[in-house]
Amino acid sequence: MPYVVADDLPDAPAGQRFRALLERPEILRIPGAHLGIASLLAKKAGFEALYLSGAAMSATMGLPDLGMITVDDVAWHIRQVARASGLPALVDGDTGYGEALNVMHMVRAFEEAGAGAVHLEDQLLPKKCGHLNDKKLADAYDMAAKVAAARKARRHLYLIARTDAAASEGIDGAVARAKLYLEAGADAIFPEALTNAEMFREFARRMPGVKLLANMTEFGRTPFFTAEEFQEMGYAMVIWPVSHLRVAAKGMEELYAAINRDGGTHKMVDRMQTRAELYATIDYSAYEALDQTLVKTIVPEAMPQRS
Prior knowledge:
307 residues; alpha/beta; eight-stranded parallel sheet; 45% helix; globular
């Protein structure tokens, strides 16, 4: 039953629930799910935390991932995922939407929307996907100030600092930045766009006792690794940030081509979720049953007369 109508609403804040998941020995698997329907399908598959990718949210709005979306745009996605699934979500906070005060506003807005965790990155605007070329890095101390601001503003939100330094400053630069961000108050580190297993292992070796996040995005600079392989390399979390969007977008592309080619959808029906399957996913019957328990409103026909 959806959390919006259930009696078993989570008692603990999302940040506390996210942190508790990381206390277990096995790696935390976090698929991308930036829409309510996606969050329900991921939950049905057995996932316990979700990821909201800035690239996925931007693309859904028809925009490139260049830091163009706003705090309010992201909060809208957080609210629907939190309400639909009740799962704690790790949210892409890009560069924090500005400087320290903007970061504090972002943290409070994301917490209020229901987020469990956020990651901040050390790029300059216009930021890029971490697996693209010619990324411009912020000064490490400026980034540390943002992390400290986020730590000061948060009530329970789990804070992950992302560094894109490996591409231009190597492992030494990425490790130095990561240590600075930890000192500023980050709970975990996200080393972006590492290009082979040796780099992943070396970064983890030089960050003993630190929770690390791995990014398993397709068509990027990181080879395909499984969750088990990342765990063996020393990582506590792994995200598949845009996989769901890529699959869905490819499906829509094929659907529109089929309608144009065939004059209808009759050759695509076997690729579709049925009405019954959709209603089961969103638990249509639970909402319908709840609606029937509500007292019908009686609208007065006229104002009473003064006595």
